[in-house]
Every structure is written in C-alpha cells, then in structure tokens.
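Researcher: Next sequence.
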Amino acid sequence: MQVERIRDAAANLAFFPLMGRNVPELPDSGFKEVISGNFRVIYRFDESDNRILVMSVMHGRRMLENCDVI
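Model: Next structure:
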C-alpha cells in the first residue's frame, strides 16, 4: 500500500536524515525531499534537536509554487 511505503521512506530518515536531495524549488532553504512512488516527502532536519520535521507529503507532479504547503 502506498501509505505504508511513504511511512517507511519517512522512517528511514531517522537513520539517514541527510539522504534526501534539496528541494529544487527551494534550493537554499534547508528543505530536503525523498521520493516514494509518485509522492514527495518534504522535510527539514533540525540538527540542534536531532529531529526530522516532515513538512509535507504531496504528489510528485505538484510544484511548490503552485500550492501553499510550506
């Protein structure tokens, strides 16, 4: 199921928080993303608290400038 794959992709960030790429629309923002199927998991790694903050899960065809997710 797609929801489980997205959850697994986000869970892997606990072990490899910097594995994602920089979000192309926001290259200098500190936001990263991992792709799971047709979906983008957009997150930020807070090094001071050693936390992953998932900001959005959205369909891969959507561009951030077309929506107000962050």
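Model: The CA atoms of residues 26 and 64 lie 9 Å apart. The longest helix spans residues 2-12.
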